[in-house]
Design goal:
It contains three helices and four strands; from the N terminus they run E-H-E-H-H-E-E. By secondary structure, the protein is α+β, with helices and mostly antiparallel strands. The protein folds into two domains: 59 residues, no CATH class; 35 residues, no CATH class. Strands 1-2 form a two-stranded parallel sheet. A two-stranded antiparallel ribbon has the order 3-4. Helix 1 links the parallel strand 1 and strand 2. It starts with 5 loop residues before the first strand and ends with a strand.
């Protein structure tokens, strides 16, 4: 559903509050209007704009992103490939390699 105008109450409500926006919900909320000038942000009366800082750390769900990467964008069929989607998900959710610490020799870092 597309709206003419929308007001979004995005202020941070605490760590345990389930009403804080997640990435997916924020994406949908911003995509409901034709033009960004028709979006207004509602900031709580006793807060300032810093209550929106949590939004900077939101990340897309890797499962959803990987699902769409499974589609073949070439040709008119738009076929979906499970193996491509699964490989994308595994790359997105793989733990980062740990940095090895350099051993010290005589109290100095080893080059």
């Amino acid at each position: 559903m597309t709206l003419d105008k929308v007001i979004l109450a995005l202020g941070y409500r605490g760590k345990t509050c389930v009403t804080n926006f997640q990435y997916d919900a924020l994406y949908v909320a911003f995509s409901r209007v034709h033009d960004r000038k028709d979006i207004r942000i509602l900031v709580p009366k006793r807060a300032d704009w810093t209550c929106l800082n949590y939004i900077y750390n939101l990340q897309p769900n890797p499962a959803i992103d990987s699902y769409f990467k499974g589609y073949n964008k070439e040709g008119a069929t738009g076929t979906w490939n499970e193996n491509v989607a699964l490989a994308s998900y595994r790359r997105a959710t793989a733990p980062l390699p740990r940095q090895r610490r350099k051993r010290r020799l005589n109290g100095r870092p080893h080059a």
